[in-house]
Amino acid sequence: MSWVFLRDLLSGVNKYSTGIGRIWVAVVFMFRLLVYVAAAENIWKHEHDEFECNIKQPGCENVCFDHFFPVSHIRLWALQLIMVSTPSLLVVFHVAYRENRERHHNQKLYKNPGKIDGGLLCTYLISLILKTGLEIGFLVLFYKLYNGFKIPRLVKCDIKPCPNTVDCYISKPTEKMIFLYFLVATSCLCIVLNLSELSYLIFKYSMKCYLKRHMKKQQ
Protein backbone atom coordinates (compact mmCIF):
# COMPACT_ATOMS: atom_id res chain seq x y z
CA MET A 1 0.00 0.00 0.00
CA SER A 2 1.27 3.48 -0.86
CA TRP A 3 1.04 6.01 1.97
CA VAL A 4 2.14 9.03 -0.08
CA PHE A 5 -1.39 10.49 -0.14
CA LEU A 6 -1.56 10.39 3.68
CA ARG A 7 1.86 12.02 3.99
CA ASP A 8 0.78 14.80 1.62
CA LEU A 9 -2.46 15.26 3.54
CA LEU A 10 -0.64 15.59 6.87
CA SER A 11 1.83 18.05 5.31
CA GLY A 12 -1.05 20.18 4.02
CA VAL A 13 -2.85 20.17 7.37
CA ASN A 14 0.36 21.14 9.18
CA LYS A 15 0.26 24.59 7.52
CA TYR A 16 -3.07 25.46 9.15
CA SER A 17 -2.60 23.81 12.56
CA THR A 18 -1.90 25.28 15.97
CA GLY A 19 1.27 24.31 17.88
CA ILE A 20 -0.51 21.36 19.49
CA GLY A 21 -1.89 20.35 16.09
CA ARG A 22 1.63 20.25 14.65
CA ILE A 23 2.70 17.94 17.48
CA TRP A 24 -0.26 15.69 16.58
CA VAL A 25 0.85 15.62 12.93
CA ALA A 26 4.41 14.74 14.00
CA VAL A 27 3.17 11.90 16.25
CA VAL A 28 0.92 10.47 13.49
CA PHE A 29 3.63 10.72 10.85
CA MET A 30 6.71 9.64 12.83
CA PHE A 31 5.39 7.31 15.52
CA ARG A 32 2.44 5.76 13.73
CA LEU A 33 2.79 5.93 9.95
CA LEU A 34 6.55 5.35 9.76
CA VAL A 35 6.51 2.62 12.43
CA TYR A 36 3.62 0.94 10.61
CA VAL A 37 5.37 1.03 7.22
CA ALA A 38 8.90 0.26 8.45
CA ALA A 39 8.23 -2.48 10.97
CA ALA A 40 4.68 -3.41 12.00
CA GLU A 41 3.51 -4.29 8.48
CA ASN A 42 6.30 -6.88 8.11
CA ILE A 43 5.61 -8.49 11.50
CA TRP A 44 2.00 -9.32 10.56
CA LYS A 45 2.77 -9.98 6.89
CA HIS A 46 2.49 -13.80 7.13
CA GLU A 47 0.31 -14.07 10.24
CA HIS A 48 -2.06 -16.60 8.65
CA ASP A 49 0.72 -18.82 7.26
CA GLU A 50 2.51 -18.81 10.64
CA PHE A 51 -0.62 -19.63 12.64
CA GLU A 52 -0.27 -23.34 13.48
CA CYS A 53 -2.58 -25.85 15.14
CA ASN A 54 -1.58 -29.29 16.45
CA ILE A 55 -3.94 -31.06 14.06
CA LYS A 56 -4.08 -31.34 10.28
CA GLN A 57 -7.88 -31.65 9.96
CA PRO A 58 -8.79 -29.83 6.70
CA GLY A 59 -10.38 -26.46 7.41
CA CYS A 60 -9.76 -26.55 11.18
CA GLU A 61 -6.80 -24.16 11.11
CA ASN A 62 -8.66 -21.69 8.88
CA VAL A 63 -11.81 -21.48 11.03
CA CYS A 64 -9.73 -21.15 14.21
CA PHE A 65 -7.69 -18.32 12.73
CA ASP A 66 -10.86 -16.58 11.55
CA HIS A 67 -12.40 -16.95 15.03
CA PHE A 68 -9.47 -15.45 16.93
CA PHE A 69 -8.54 -12.88 14.24
CA PRO A 70 -11.85 -11.85 12.60
CA VAL A 71 -10.08 -8.77 11.20
CA SER A 72 -6.33 -8.56 10.67
CA HIS A 73 -4.61 -6.30 13.22
CA ILE A 74 -2.53 -4.67 10.52
CA ARG A 75 -5.47 -3.93 8.22
CA LEU A 76 -7.46 -2.49 11.10
CA TRP A 77 -4.51 -0.22 12.00
CA ALA A 78 -4.28 0.90 8.37
CA LEU A 79 -8.00 1.73 8.39
CA GLN A 80 -7.57 3.57 11.70
CA LEU A 81 -4.70 5.69 10.33
CA ILE A 82 -6.74 6.64 7.26
CA MET A 83 -9.92 7.38 9.20
CA VAL A 84 -8.35 9.54 11.93
CA SER A 85 -6.47 11.57 9.31
CA THR A 86 -9.47 12.11 7.02
CA PRO A 87 -11.29 14.75 9.18
CA SER A 88 -8.29 17.03 8.63
CA LEU A 89 -9.44 17.26 5.00
CA LEU A 90 -12.33 19.41 6.23
CA VAL A 91 -9.85 22.12 7.24
CA VAL A 92 -7.94 21.87 3.95
CA PHE A 93 -11.18 22.07 1.94
CA HIS A 94 -12.39 25.06 3.96
CA VAL A 95 -9.15 26.97 3.36
CA ALA A 96 -9.34 26.06 -0.36
CA TYR A 97 -12.94 27.36 -0.38
CA ARG A 98 -11.79 30.68 1.12
CA GLU A 99 -8.98 31.04 -1.40
CA ASN A 100 -11.30 30.16 -4.30
CA ARG A 101 -13.86 32.70 -3.04
CA GLU A 102 -11.19 35.43 -3.03
CA ARG A 103 -10.19 34.54 -6.59
CA HIS A 104 -13.83 34.53 -7.69
CA HIS A 105 -14.50 38.00 -6.22
CA ASN A 106 -11.03 39.21 -7.22
CA GLN A 107 -10.50 40.92 -3.88
CA LYS A 108 -9.08 40.26 -0.43
CA LEU A 109 -11.93 38.91 1.69
CA TYR A 110 -9.82 37.48 4.53
CA LYS A 111 -6.74 38.79 6.29
CA ASN A 112 -5.35 35.28 6.05
CA PRO A 113 -7.43 32.43 4.49
CA GLY A 114 -5.60 29.92 6.68
CA LYS A 115 -6.20 31.76 9.96
CA ILE A 116 -8.35 29.76 12.39
CA ASP A 117 -11.30 32.07 13.00
CA GLY A 118 -14.98 32.39 12.14
CA GLY A 119 -16.27 29.50 10.06
CA LEU A 120 -12.82 27.89 9.81
CA LEU A 121 -12.69 27.71 13.62
CA CYS A 122 -15.97 25.74 13.64
CA THR A 123 -14.64 23.41 10.92
CA TYR A 124 -11.39 22.92 12.86
CA LEU A 125 -13.26 22.10 16.09
CA ILE A 126 -15.51 19.63 14.25
CA SER A 127 -12.43 17.92 12.77
CA LEU A 128 -10.91 17.60 16.26
CA ILE A 129 -14.11 16.11 17.69
CA LEU A 130 -14.31 13.62 14.79
CA LYS A 131 -10.65 12.61 15.16
CA THR A 132 -11.06 12.08 18.90
CA GLY A 133 -14.26 10.09 18.43
CA LEU A 134 -12.67 7.87 15.77
CA GLU A 135 -9.58 7.22 17.90
CA ILE A 136 -11.73 6.18 20.88
CA GLY A 137 -14.02 4.15 18.61
CA PHE A 138 -11.13 2.17 17.13
CA LEU A 139 -9.60 1.50 20.57
CA VAL A 140 -12.96 0.12 21.75
CA LEU A 141 -13.26 -1.92 18.53
CA PHE A 142 -9.77 -3.40 19.05
CA TYR A 143 -10.61 -4.27 22.65
CA LYS A 144 -13.92 -5.92 21.75
CA LEU A 145 -12.61 -7.87 18.74
CA TYR A 146 -9.55 -9.32 20.48
CA ASN A 147 -10.79 -9.49 24.09
CA GLY A 148 -8.30 -6.92 25.31
CA PHE A 149 -4.96 -5.57 24.17
CA LYS A 150 -2.98 -8.77 24.30
CA ILE A 151 -1.48 -11.41 22.03
CA PRO A 152 -1.64 -14.90 23.62
CA ARG A 153 1.02 -17.48 22.78
CA LEU A 154 -1.52 -20.31 22.77
CA VAL A 155 -5.26 -20.35 21.97
CA LYS A 156 -7.60 -23.33 22.34
CA CYS A 157 -10.12 -23.92 19.58
CA ASP A 158 -13.06 -26.34 19.45
CA ILE A 159 -14.96 -25.00 16.42
CA LYS A 160 -16.15 -27.38 13.71
CA PRO A 161 -14.66 -28.96 11.62
CA CYS A 162 -12.08 -29.45 14.41
CA PRO A 163 -12.84 -32.92 15.89
CA ASN A 164 -11.96 -31.82 19.45
CA THR A 165 -10.29 -28.98 21.36
CA VAL A 166 -7.01 -28.22 19.61
CA ASP A 167 -4.05 -26.04 20.57
CA CYS A 168 -3.14 -23.27 18.13
CA TYR A 169 0.05 -21.24 18.33
CA ILE A 170 0.51 -17.62 17.28
CA SER A 171 3.88 -16.66 15.82
CA LYS A 172 6.09 -13.96 17.41
CA PRO A 173 3.59 -13.10 20.18
CA THR A 174 6.07 -11.03 22.26
CA GLU A 175 7.15 -8.91 19.30
CA LYS A 176 3.53 -8.38 18.27
CA MET A 177 2.58 -7.47 21.84
CA ILE A 178 5.30 -4.78 21.99
CA PHE A 179 4.06 -3.14 18.79
CA LEU A 180 0.45 -3.49 19.92
CA TYR A 181 1.18 -1.61 23.17
CA PHE A 182 3.20 0.99 21.28
CA LEU A 183 0.41 1.68 18.79
CA VAL A 184 -2.24 1.79 21.53
CA ALA A 185 -0.06 4.22 23.52
CA THR A 186 0.41 6.52 20.51
CA SER A 187 -3.33 6.38 19.85
CA CYS A 188 -3.98 7.46 23.46
CA LEU A 189 -1.39 10.23 23.08
CA CYS A 190 -3.23 11.49 19.98
CA ILE A 191 -6.50 11.54 21.95
CA VAL A 192 -4.84 13.64 24.67
CA LEU A 193 -3.38 16.02 22.07
CA ASN A 194 -6.76 16.40 20.31
CA LEU A 195 -8.56 17.11 23.59
CA SER A 196 -5.82 19.56 24.62
CA GLU A 197 -6.06 21.42 21.31
CA LEU A 198 -9.87 21.46 21.53
CA SER A 199 -9.74 22.90 25.06
CA TYR A 200 -7.07 25.42 24.07
CA LEU A 201 -9.03 26.74 21.07
CA ILE A 202 -12.31 26.98 22.99
CA PHE A 203 -10.60 28.78 25.89
CA LYS A 204 -8.65 31.09 23.56
CA TYR A 205 -11.65 32.24 21.55
CA SER A 206 -13.90 32.43 24.62
CA MET A 207 -11.39 34.82 26.17
CA LYS A 208 -11.18 36.76 22.90
CA CYS A 209 -14.99 37.21 22.80
CA TYR A 210 -15.06 38.16 26.48
CA LEU A 211 -12.35 40.80 26.02
CA LYS A 212 -14.15 42.24 22.98
CA ARG A 213 -17.37 42.59 24.95
CA HIS A 214 -15.47 44.09 27.89
CA MET A 215 -13.79 46.66 25.60
CA LYS A 216 -17.15 47.63 24.05
CA LYS A 217 -18.66 48.19 27.51
CA GLN A 218 -15.74 50.41 28.50
CA GLN A 219 -16.12 52.49 25.32
From TrEMBL:
Alphabetic keyword roster: Cell junction, Cell membrane, Gap junction, Membrane, Transmembrane, Transmembrane helix
InterPro entries linked: Connexin, Connexin_CCC, Connexin_CS, Connexin_N, Connexin_N_sf
Domain Connexin cysteine-rich as annotated: residue spans: 134-201
A GO-annotated cellular component: connexin complex
Transmembrane region(s): 21-39, 77-97, 118-143, 178-203
Organism superkingdom: Eukaryota
Subcellular localization(s) per the UniProt record: Cell junction, Gap junction; Cell membrane
Ranges for domain Connexin N-terminal: 42-75
Protein name, entry field: Gap junction protein
Upper classification of the organism: Eukaryota, Metazoa, Chordata, Craniata, Vertebrata
